[in-house]
Write a structure and sequence with these properties.
CATH topology of the domain at 504-634 and 657-735: Arginase, Chain A
Radius of gyration: 33 Å
Strand order of the largest sheet: 9-8-13-18-17-14-15-16
InterPro entries: Chromo-like_dom_sf (IPR016197), HDACs (IPR000286), His_deacetylse_dom (IPR023801), His_deacetylse_dom_sf (IPR037138), Ureohydrolase_dom_sf (IPR023696)
Region (Disordered): 26-100, 277-300, 312-344
Number of helices: 18
Protein name: histone deacetylase
Main location: nucleus
CATH class of the domain at 504-634 and 657-735: Alpha Beta
EC number: 3.5.1.98
Structural class: alpha/beta
Distance between the termini: 64 Å
Shape: globular
Largest sheet: 8 strands, parallel
Number of strands: 18
């Protein structure tokens, strides 16, 4: 044995640096194992004195019996201390200090059960603190074991996925901390735990998925709506989750872990320049050969369908036709003043305002980074984790290094005084980029288990929305086109299973971005139902004769609604259902999609002001449309259906409509009143005159591309719905409007 590796057996735990002797006193080593002495005819412990004589020296590394005994005592104490620490860690159900072994984390996941009361780190305002939480669901993902927890005393939109290193059982060391709503009932959570492990719920967790992520709530106007309440705000997700929670509907979903979309996924539909402008990454973007990112050497004039239409509303005095433009702006040139969703006209900020905001958020990023580092150190200390172990488990609690993002379009001065994009699209330099990437990635993560057969359908509760975002422009509260990114990546990832996709967009605003991205794609059929008003309603695009181009000709269908000039009436349940029944269903059956996406905007719901919606679709109407689409998916593509949130800005109508709609994704036996029926479901079965005229225009154009039923073209046909669908008592189906603010009900458990 080499002398530098040898450690006596009784001291191997401490591994002290001992000096080895090869003298005859070293009984534990054979002479042969010591090697040759440093001098000829010497045993290695002989030294030469000043007068030249030889004398034996005592090896300085050889301890006495007393020293050996003291060392053994110290080693024993150290082992006892280590054993006690490991026992404490075991009680806390945390990984051992400094460990990054995923197998140990996966083993630790089995310690948690639904309904368990635990402590989990909660992140808010760059501060991470331990709060009492309840286990809602344990991830089965072996690559990233984590737990979905509901923080007691906090609204449901604060629920979060946390790594196993950031959740522990309470060991009565300190009092439990609860949110502002206080402690929740143990009885309600025991009820949830009992339900969770029933055979009924086990099968339900394989039916409908729900994806949410608290990081999307970080996206807001820097003014935090202190002066002006911006329509697209974090409360939108909170109101929907509160509605789900009040009806105890959250227990029926399988919760999906969200993530950020990768750069490669984003450049499937967006130009590298656009992705770079709206992300804080410094990494090089993957190369792309997509033709839509190239400039056509022979540009040709095309109809205005999106970029110009979205940003601009032609004035009456501007009658000059649009001039030809390159393919990168292939839907026409910009005409007229730039306008926003609410109808406001752009006010450009000066350079001083822009530079001042950049300095403000650069300073804020530095302060936030320091605060986050201090909070991480404190949390790691309180959880008995090393910094390396803590960092490996904070993916869901950290926003990473905050780098201000200032897109070139962030030059519009909004009414609140902050800078915005395209007139009134709010953008937070520190958080909006992250939220937009999480929204796109969350939808992709929901699609995967549906395509792979682990789920039947699902709802992506995400923001910011996406259907206005074009390949190279952010607008209309949208930065990345979530549906387009997910559709494009699904077609590429599953080419043998998913060859064609149907996208239905029932947001009251036309999805100009989705239309532009798939305008020449024969494998994506885009159908949009929206308010158009002859091109005078935002985003001023979506004319019925915009049908696609090239290989995608006929794969773009705009059901554009206009009010009748003689009898103007807003569209409601009957008008939307007529469009589904007579146009969308027959065309979808001919297209035979392998999967269906729904851009589910709820701004057509009754209660939205005229500039943001102005229609009167009831929660029952949205439920009936969802039922139709679900049945269509069951008929054509094995039930593969994904709904994703787009618009909807008045909180009460938004929450009620989303609740009614998403409930239809669940199995029929969930509703105690039984499944929703078409019979006696509508107050009227005759669409108004404006809808009849609009639908006649649509079928007249689409008959060139689809084999539509002959009855649609009979003289005097008015798109009536089946007689039995009319309610015998209209009051029973009339949506109840409560103009007074409602008190949020106190509901505990899931």
């Amino acid at each position: 044995m080499p002398r530098h590796n040898y450690v006596p057996t009784h001291l191997q735990h401490e591994a002290l640096p001992l000096r080895v002797s090869c003298s005859v006193d070293s009984r534990h080593l054979s002479p042969a194992s010591c090697g040759s002495p440093p001098y000829p005819d010497s045993d290695g412990n002989l030294s030469t004195s000043s007068n030249g004589s030889l004398k034996r020296r005592r090896g300085p590394g050889r301890p006495s019996k007393k020293e050996l005994k003291e060392r053994e005592t110290r080693v024993q104490k150290k082992e006892d201390s280590l054993t006690m620490a490991q026992e404490k860690l075991k009680d806390l159900r945390l990984p051992s200090t400094g460990t990054n072994n995923k197998s140990q984390l996966i083993q630790g996941i089995h310690h948690f059960r639904a309904g368990d009361q635990v402590e989990a780190l909660k992140c808010s305002d760059y501060c991470k603190e331990w709060y009492c939480a309840r286990v809602v669901q344990v991830s089965n993902d072996k690559t990233e074991p984590c737990v979905f927890v509901h923080y007691e005393g906090w609204p449901p939109d604060h629920a979060d996925w946390v790594g196993l290193g950031l959740v522990r059982t309470h060991a009565n060391r300190t009092p439990l901390r609860f949110g502002p709503l206080g402690r929740e009932s143990d009885r309600s959570w025991k009820d949830y735990a009992t339900f969770y492990y029933t055979s009924q719920n086990i099968s339900l967790r394989q039916y409908t998925g729900l994806v949410q992520d608290r990081r999307m709530a970080l996206h807001s106007c820097p003014c935090h709506s202190a002066v002006t309440i911006h329509p697209e705000r974090p409360d939108r997700i909170g109101s929907i989750l509160q509605a789900f929670h009040a009806q105890k509907m959250l227990r029926y979903f399988r919760h999906i872990h969200a993530r950020e979309a990768t750069l490669d996924e984003l450049v499937h539909v967006h130009t590298p320049t656009h992705v770079r402008n709206y992300t804080s990454t410094t990494n090089s973007l993957p190369p792309t050969t997509d033709h839509q990112h190239e400039v056509d050497p022979n540009p040709r004039p095309l109809k205005i369908t999106s970029i110009a239409a979205l940003l601009n509303s032609p004035t009456e005095s501007e009658e000059s036709p649009p001039s030809p433009s390159p393919r990168s702006h292939r839907h026409g040139s910009i005409v007229g003043p730039t306008r926003g969703v609410g109808g406001g006209v752009v006010v450009e900020a000066n350079q001083d305002d822009i530079q001042q905001q950049h300095r403000r958020f650069s300073t804020a990023a530095t302060t936030a980074a320091a605060a986050a580092a201090a909070a991480a150190a404190a949390a790691a200390s309180s959880s008995s984790l090393s910094s390396s172990s803590y960092d490996s488990n904070t993916a869901d609690l950290s926003e990473g290094v905050l780098v201000p993002v200032s897109p070139p379009g962030l030059v519009c001065k909004m009414t609140c005084g902050e800078l915005g994009i395209a007139v009134d699209t709010t953008f937070h330099p520190l958080h909006s980029s992250l939220a937009a990437r999480v929204a796109a990635g969350a939808l992709i993560n929901l699609v995967t288990p549906i395509v792979e057969g682990q789920l039947h359908n699902g709802f992506a509760l995400i923001r910011p929305p996406g259907h206005h975002a074009e390949d190279d422009n952010a607008m209309g509260f949208c930065f990345f086109n979530n549906v387009a990114v997910a559709v494009s990546n699904t077609l590429e990832k599953y080419p043998s299973k998913i060859k064609k996709i149907l996208v239905i967009d029932w947001d009251v605003h036309h999805g100009n971005g989705t239309q532009k991205i798939f305008y020449d794609n024969p494998n994506v059929l885009y159908i949009s139902l929206h308010r158009w008003e002859q091109g005078k309603f935002y985003p001023f695009s979506g004319a019925p004769d915009e049908c696609g181009e090239g290989a995608g000709l006929g794969r773009n269908i705009n059901i554009s609604f206009n009010e009748s000039l003689d009898k103007p009436k807003p569209m409601g349940d009957t008008e939307f259902m007529a469009a589904f029944y007579h146009i969308i269903l027959p065309i979808a059956r001919q297209f035979l999609p392998d999967m269906i996406f729904v851009s589910a905007g709820f701004d057509a719901a009754e209660g939205h002001p005229d500039n943001l919606g102005g229609y009167k679709v009831s929660p029952r109407g949205f439920a009936l449309m969802t039922k139709m689409v679900k049945e269509l998916a069951e008929e054509l593509c094995s039930g593969r259906l994904v709904m994703t949130l787009e618009g909807g800005y008045e909180l009460q109508p938004l929450a009620n409509s989303a609740l009614a709609s998403v409930a239809q994704l669940l199995p029929d036996h969930i509703d105690p009143d039984g499944p929703l029926e078409y019979k006696h479901s509508l107050n009227a079965i005759k669409p108004n005159q404006g809808a009849v005229d609009s639908l006649e225009t649509v079928i007249g154009i689409q008959r060139k591309f689809w084999d539509l039923p002959e009855y649609l073209f009979q003289p005097g046909f008015r798109f009536h719905l089946p007689v039995e669908w009319r309610a015998t008592d209209s009051i029973s189906t009339r949506p109840r409007r409560d103009k007074r603010p409602r008190k949020v009900p106190v509901v505990e458990g899931y």
